Amino acid sequence: MYTIPTSRSVSLLFTTFALFTSSLVYAEAAGYVTPTSGTASTTQFNVGSEFVNGGTACGASAFPNGAGTSGAAGGGPGLLYAAVNQLGFGANPAVPGAGGPGQACGLCFNLTPLDSHGNPLSANNLTFMIVDECPVLTDGSSGSVSPNCGMCQPGDVNAAGQQTHFDIAVDAMNQAQYDQFFSGCMDGNNWPVVQYTETTCNGVVNADPIIEGSWGCIEGCHNNEAATVCQNIP
How many Å separate Cα 81 from the centre of its chain? Predict the structure, then answer.
């Protein structure tokens, strides 16, 4: 099941235009598309290890208020964080000067898993804040293209047939949150398809992490101009 996402412009620095056949608005001349609603695939990652190794692509370097994590899924302080694919994130780390925070940093999305018949599992839904990106390349700079996040331009889909992908920071979640979101999960520990909608962040479970530098292009970061989504990708 794939629903063409809607998207929005977050910066007046870039030319926007409407694709009238699908009601999409593509946000930047460089090709990035910040999603607002649609369907997406999901995987899991540990954001705690990103903090230890220099921080996330949004500039997040630690959990707020001195909180920590055991490193296990559900072993965190009860924070709902995620990464989004590079096409939606808004920066290209393969080009010098074009990496760093993208316009998706700090946005929140309500994610509702779908069962095998495409029915929404409303009891599972949670709202996640974007604190990182899932890069086109598996190692972020060179090598193989990610099967989940290798989309380069609007209309591209990943191995799951989705244009948007969320990587869930499971080590930031507490056990109750993990059990709620992944209850009944059909594909190992990953939901093959979720519905997503941009929404207001919850100041408790979506509390801002500790940030080094600017908090994404929401606060005027201009790195999006420096490179298209897949420039310098082998």
Answer: 9
Contact yes or no for 88/109 (Cβ under 8 A):
no
Exposure string for 155-183, b = 16+ CB within 10 A, e = fewer? eeebebebbbbbbbbbbbbbeebbeebbe
Stated pTM of the model = 0.86
Of 52, 135, 55, the closest CA to residue 95 belongs to: 135
Alpha helices in 61-121 (DSSP H): 86-89
Please write the tens of the pLDDT for every residue from 37-72.
999 999 999 999 999 998 898 889 999 999 999 999
Give the span between the Cα atoms of 93 and 127, in whole angstroms: 26
Q: Which residue has the tokens 């056990």?
A: 175
Distance of alpha carbon 106 from alpha carbon 201, whole angstroms:
8
The runs of H, that is alpha helices, within 62-147 are 86-89
- Residues 85/132, Cβ–Cβ less than 8 Å: no
User: Which stretch of DSSP H or E encloses residue 37?
Assistant: strand 34-45
